[in-house]
Structure formats: structure tokens, C-alpha cells
Amino acid sequence: MQRTFLIVALAVATSTSTTAHAGSVGDMGLSADQIRSLNAQLTAPVVAPGIAFGSPVAYGADWGQLFAGVGGQTLPAGSGDSVDGSMLVGMGFGDSQVTAGLELSATVISITDDFGADGSFNAKMHRALPGRASVALGVEETQGWGLAETTQPSIYAVYTQTIDLVPQSPRRPVPLVFNVGAGDERFVDPGDSGVGLFASVSVHPHRQLALIADYTGRGLNAAVSIVPLRRTPLVVTLGAVNLTGRLGGDVEFAGGIGLLHQF
Predict the structure, then answer these.
(1) Does domain 18-262 have CATH number 2.40.160?
(2) Could you tell me if 68 and 259 are in contact, meaning their C-beta atoms sit under 8 angstroms apart?
(3) N or C end: fewer C-beta atoms under 10 angstroms in the chain?
(4) What pTM was computed for the model?
């Protein structure tokens, strides 16, 4: 089963009235662009939508950030079950803005049969770069237990960058996030060795909505990610995997819910 997990970024938000702040900061001599930028920060959701649907990203959790995700996916005919799910919990250490951040997480492979009996660990070292970019080195599915005990870990390197499609928009920029990387094992075709390439791109027409296309090195996925409630750090992502049929079988549907906590 291909597992899809959500990684969410934390944004600082304060609930306020846009009109009231525009007037008060205008009296302070700020330009119209500065007022729009300030209002955008004050009214931003507490988390951002997902930016990938299957591929790892270079953004990661720092110290004080806890996250959890639950995902499910339909299974091909003949698999025994029609749907299966997985769970991910993790925490950040360090500071990616100063030195480096370390994100550690554990994956429970199946939540439908013998919960917790099978799973593995993941680790990612990430470093923020100027211009809303980041690089990371990571490993997935290492030190497995249960049915995952013999699974080979996947090692990867990835670069993620955020740019504005319409930087001079009178209302707000439209962010685009692209993600490119390389890795072994789950990023190459089953049975193959060597290194495979993966990439994803997401467009954010609204601060609480992202449209995602993701090539994992094995197949093409597409998804929609939303933050349903601006003041709640919850992200919901729904999509389809194996769109081109490259993995054999039919297109399958997948989804996940991610939650972030800052302390």
C-alpha cells in the first residue's frame, strides 16, 4: 500500500479586523503595500495546506512542534480488504533557521488490523534557506517492527521552494510551492535498484486551499488540501493515486487528516 502523509507548516496568526488595522497603521505612515502585508499576516490561518501528496518535502518541524496524521487508501481488487489506513506521529527538534532542524516520527502501518503491531521510524534533517526555501536529508521506514521489520529503508534528499505567481497582486500573492528530490527504494519502481527522482508542485489560490500534483518516482498523484477552520491547526487532504496506471491496476483514492500542535 502506498502511504500518503501530511506535513503542515506553522504560521503565526492573530484574529483582527482588516478595516480597523488599515486605518490605524495608515495613520502611522505605512504604505499601502505595507498595510496589505501586515493585514495578511494578522489574518493568516494558523497552519498552511499540504504541499505534497506522497513525496517528502524539505520543510520540517522544529523544536516545540508536534504533529500527527491519519491516512487511508482504497486497495486494488484481490487485496482482501477494500481500504486500509496508516497513522503517523512525530516531533521536531532544533531550529532550522539557525542551524538545522531534526524531525523524528513513527509510522503505524495498519490501523485496521492489530493496531500498532507493525510500523517503522522516520527521520529528517532540514535547513531553511533564504527566499522561503529549504533542503533536507531523510530516511523513511527504518528500524521497523512486526511486518515492517524486513522492509528496506528509503533514503532521500529534497529541495523545496515557495515563490509568488502574482507578486504584485492588489489583493495578495498566489503562492506556488515546488519540490524536487531523489531517493532509493520507494522512489524507484518495485524490484529496481538505484536512485529515482520525485517532484511535486502545489498552487495556493486561497490561503486555506492548495491544488497538488505529485510524482513519487513510481506514479502520479493529484490532490486537494484544505484548512477547514482558520483558527484550528487541522489540514484535510483528499486525492487520487496512480493516475497514469504506471503501477498497474486502477486509480486508487486516498486521503488524510493532519494536526499540528505548538508548545
Answers:
(1) yes
(2) yes
(3) C
(4) 0.83
Of all residues in the chain, what percent are helix, strand and coil, respectively (each to 5)? 10, 45, 45
Are 1 and 75 spatial neighbours (Cβ–Cβ below 8 Å)?
Answer: yes
Assign 157 a pLDDT band (cuts: 50, 70, 90).
very high
Number of helices (H), then strands (E), belonging to the chain: the values are 2, 12
What is each CA distance from 225 to 43, 139, 238, 256, in whole angstroms? 19, 25, 6, 9
Neighbour-count burial of 150, counting CB atoms closer than 10 A to its CB (0-12 exposed, 13-18 middle, 19+ buried): exposed
* Per-residue model confidence as pLDDT tens digits over 57-103: 999 999 999 999 998 888 776 666 667 788 999 999 999 999 999 99
Distance CA 154, CA 113 (A): 24
How far is residue 243's CA from residue 245's CA, in Å, rounded to a whole number?
6
- Residues 9 and 248: their CA atoms lie apart, in Å, by 34
CA atoms within 13 A on the CB side of 3: 21
Rounded to whole angstroms, the Cα distance separating 172 from 33 reads 10
Give the type of residue at 53. Answer: F
Which H or E run includes 20? helix 18-27
Residue type, 176: L
What is the residue extent of each domain of the chain? 18-262
- At 244, list the grid cell: 497514469
3-state secondary structure of 52: coil
* CB 188 within 8 Å of CB 182: no
Among 175, 131, 139, 133, residue whose Cα is nearest residue 157? 139
**And the C-alpha cell for 89?**
506521529
